[in-house]
Amino acid sequence: MAMKGNKYGIHRVIEPQGVLTQAAYKIDNDMTKLYSNEIMCDVISLNIDSASFTQISEACGGDEKKIGEMILGIVAERGKQQNPVTGSGGMFIGKVCYIGEDLKDRDLKVGDKIASLVSLSMTPLRIDKIKAIHKDIDRVDIEGKAILFESGIYAKLPEDMSEPLALAALDVAGAPAQARKLPKEGDSVLILGANGKSGVLCGYEAMKKVGPNGNVVGVVRNPKQVDALMDLGVYHKVIVASATEPVAVLDNALAANDGKEYDLSICCVNIENCEMSAILPVRDDGLVYFFSMATGFTKAALGAEGAGLSRAAGRFAQVCDWPDAGPAGGAAARGHAGDDGGGRAGGRGGHQGARREGKPAGGQNGAGDTQGGRFRWLTR
User: Fold this and answer.
1) Calpha distance 39→118 (Å, rounded)
2) Last residue of a domain, one of 142, 167, 192
3) Mean pLDDT score of the chain, rounded to an integer?
4) Is residue 2, in this structure, part of any structural domain at all?
5) Running DSSP on this structure, what letter comes out for residue 379?
6) Domain co-membership, 138 together with 29
7) The whole model's pTM is what?
8) pLDDT value at position 285?
9) Residues spanned by the domain of 160
10) Cβ–Cβ contacts within 10 Å for residue 61, how many?
11) Fewest CB within 10 angstroms: 48, 189, 202, 365, which?
12) Number of domains the chain is built from
């Protein structure tokens, strides 16, 4: 008879003890151990988090063999695919090969093809063989197994959609959901990383939401991408600038919006040091939405603080979303910590943000205030 494990997978933590699997350095990926409240899958593909795959690829000079060796090394050492630099993981698709007795009442059967909606950074994973590496889509085809805990969430893959398309859509589902939710009709929206999966989908949703009187502007680094994006019809305008150069982004972005600051910016860039490029072009009391594991929240918070102090007006709003912790959360709750309800396509982990209220230093704005009452933590 199979043992029963902890619903959050704590029984799989090796070191350090007392933490959950995402925070653990090493977890148990022994697939011969069967627990009555786990689901085991034969993994088909790993969709590595974009920030993580970019970092690995750059560290390996783009060499596919070295990329594969690095991924194998991470999983062998840690029992999961958690990039030691970015801290992020990704998601997998696979076929269910075992359902614990305690989970037999779920609408799931052996042989079903599913996509995990919890991060690989907390998922027990064993890789037996790397079959192919698709650098253009951050995907790695493997032979191996993975575990979903009782608390883990997943989505059955639709039969009328190809695996790569379904995986791509689920992987970034939270970003376009927020691009549909956050802007209003007539708003101006700036999207950094406009040529990626999340950027294109965000542009599509934002264009529908802002309507004919709005302005959706995409930012790309490569001028060769401009025509293709304009042909797709997902942006009103596309500008060329590196998201790591905030002054250049600011100048070009304002020029594309009749000199006016934006109501909303969405950062989908998968490299570091893009925080201020997303913050500077936004008006006071506007919103900045970060959809990248490469985002440094300290940089974003302090950068917003500095930008706010340099302005005459006193309010600057910022929303930060950590996709590997779960992108599809709901609207920001004000002034208190709450549950996240988030996730890739409706499920993964928590989202946090900060709102610059422009209130006097030392003011009490509710639970989670920092910076003398200037920032309020929000939960998404």
Assistant:
1) 13
2) 167
3) 81
4) no
5) E
6) yes
7) 0.63
8) 84
9) 10-167
10) 8
11) 365
12) 2
Residue 366 in any domain: the answer is yes
CA distance 377 to 211: 31
The answer to whether 316 and 304 have CB atoms below 8 angstroms apart is yes
- Quote the pLDDT of residue 308: 66
| Closest alpha carbon to 322 in 114, 35, 88 | 88
Alpha-carbon span 120 to 211, nearest angstrom: 38
- Shared domain check, 110 and 90: yes
Q: Tokens for 149?
A: 């805990």
Residue 234 pLDDT: 96
101 and 179 part of one domain? no
Which pLDDT tens digit goes with each residue over 303-343? 877 766 333 233 333 444 434 433 333 222 222 222 222 33
Q: What CATH number should be reported for the domain holding residue 26? A: 3.90.180
- Rounded CA-CA distance 57/53 in Å is 6
- 129 and 262 part of one domain: no
The per-residue b/e assignment along 258-267, b for 16 or more CB within 10 angstroms, e otherwise, is: eeebbbbbbb
Q: Counting every residue, how long is the chain?
A: 380
Looking at the structure, tell me whether residues 234 and 139 fall in a common domain.
Answer: no
Task: Flag whether 1 is in a domain.
Answer: no
User: Within a 10 A sphere around the Cβ of 62, how many other Cβ atoms?
Assistant: 10
Query: Which tokens go with 44?
Result: 């088909």
pLDDT digit string (tens) for 106-133?
989 999 999 998 999 999 999 999 999 9
Is 5 among the domain residues? no
- Block means of pLDDT (10 residues each) for the chain, 380 residues, are 91 96 97 96 93 94 96 97 93 95 94 92 97 94 97 88 78 81 96 92 95 97 95 96 96 97 93 91 89 81 68 35 37 25 30 32 30 28
d(CA 377, CA 310): 22
Residues 212 and 310 in one domain: yes
Between CA 183 and CA 60 the distance in angstroms is 39
Which distant-in-sequence residues (6+ apart) come within 8 Å of 227 by Cβ? none
Q: What are the Cα distances from residue 206, in Å, to 85, 144, 197, 263?
A: 32, 39, 14, 12
334 and 229 co-located in one domain: yes
